[in-house]
Amino acid sequence: xxxxxxxxxxxxxxxxxxxxxxxxxxxxxxxxxxxxxxxxxxxxxxxxxxxxxxxxxxxxxxxxxxxxxxxxxxxxxxxxxxxxxxxxxxxxxxxxxxxxxxxxxxxxxxxxxxxxxxxxxxxxxxxxxxxxxxx
Length: 135
Prior knowledge:
Elements: H1 25-38, H2 47-83, E1 89-93, E2 99-110, E3 113-118, E4 122-125, E5 129-133
Antiparallel strand pairs: 1-2, 1-5, 2-3, 3-4
C-alpha cells in the first residue's frame, strides 16, 4: 500500500482528571478520514482493517464516557466524604505543611478542589486530611 499505512490497535488507558488525552475521538476520526482519502484506490484498505479501526474508535468513545462518569462519581464521593466531616475533630496538614487539629466547621468546593475549614479559620485541603474523629 502506498501513502498512509494501517493504524494498529493499541491499548488505551483512562487518564486522571488532571491529565489530557493524547488522541481524542475527533483527532482519531480525522486520522481515519485522512487515511481513507489518501489510500491507493488499486489497493484499498481491507475490510477487516477498516472494521478494526471502527471498533477502536467505538472503544475510545466508550472509554471517554466511562472516564467522565468515573470522574463525576469521584467528585460526588469526595464531596460526600468532606461533608461528613462537619462537626468532627479533624487532623490534617495545611498547604504550608503545618499539622493541625480542630473541629470541622465548613467545607468549600472551589475550582475543582475541596477544602475543609477548621475552627480558627484553618484551611486543610481534603487530600491532606490524616484523621477524623467524633468530636
